[in-house]
Write the structure tokens for this entry.
Amino acid sequence: MNIRELFEKREHEIYQSCAAFSDASRGREKNEEKCDIRTEFQRDRDRILHCKSFRRMKHKTQVFLAPDGDHYRTRLTHTLEVAQIARTIARALRLNEDLTEAIALGHDLGHTPFGHAGERALSKYTRTPFCHNEQSLRVVEKLENNGNGLNLTWEVRDGILNHRTGGHPSTLEGCIVRISDKVAYVNHDIDDAIRGKILKEEDLPVNTTNVLGHSTSKRLDTIIHDIIRTSLDREAILMSDEIAEALQDLRSYMFQHLYTNPVAKSEESKAEKMISVLYTYFMEDISRLNRESVEMILMGEDQSTVVCDYIAGMTDNYATEKFKDIYIPRSWQG
């Protein structure tokens, strides 16, 4: 019995019967020989962690565009916080922590530069609204690894696609990531808004803070404990009615006072215009794209889709520098 098989055996000894077991995975689109030391879900986690799209998230907007400070969240730190919360819940509920972590690490790989402003800009050029969860799936299935994708298991891909609030993950581990994503961003966005002097702790609605707590750490502790207590020995990932209502009220407050705040979002219209200009620039001449993108178009991929792929993969910094390089005159160096 090799190391992987020992891990698989241990899963059946520790996890609940409703967990997703790595030796019962629905598999990969392309068959591969199994690793002798890692389970299938551990292998997926490692592939995501080492891919280029994962590294680029460190320079992609979470809420504030190009914030002046070292401690504001980025798309990468958000992802790591989601993974931490999700792992804690999965471990406590005796569900598959490796699958949960793989989904969490991959759930935002398809986010555009400049956050949801980038999504809105690219949606003008797609047949349906540009959605980061669908793009995250496209990244792992098609775009990574020089167009070969990461060939992840079905369970990880299902969790990535269905991590949004309206999604319906097929595994409890996917359900954990979906709820952890919301728990993470509502709470860390409050922390960033306070850091950015957009909000103060005492501004938050009392009916929510009296239930959840009067600090970010206390609110996280309250919500995570509630999810674990409410979901324990049940084949569902749930919150109690009181906590769920308080979190939803807090989320609604954040949409009203931060996510649509004209001060916090004042630069987003510029970002949308920049992405629109870049789209036009690359559509005019595909040779301006990178080699992989040009090859995809020559192999029959829709040009507009490939251009959107290329722009969506950019970091905030790269998109800005590319725009400057194309449209801002340089000083004469004669």
Observations:
- Residues 3-259 form a domain with the Hypothetical protein af1432 fold (CATH 1.10.3210.10).
